[in-house]
Description:
Blueprint: E1 4-8, E2 16-20, H1 55-65
Antiparallel strand pairs: 1-2
Amino acid sequence: MYEMHPGPAATGTSELVWHIMADVPARLTxxxxxxxxxxxxxxxxxxxxxxxxxxxxxxxxRDIVQTPSGLSRTQPGSGT
Length: 80
């Protein structure tokens, strides 16, 4: 199962988007961004509402679920 956490957009804008967390390594998103642990002072944006999703994370997740087994894992930021 994958978790989603809010964080800055991968495009470098200040927009807050939903990222999909990778299984390994911890705190790394599928697009390769490192997010602070929940509850840390650096994760204060977790309280801000957002409806946008990180496009690179969503693309990586789509690739994962479209694999024949549906269970293979990707390396964060690789897009494969």
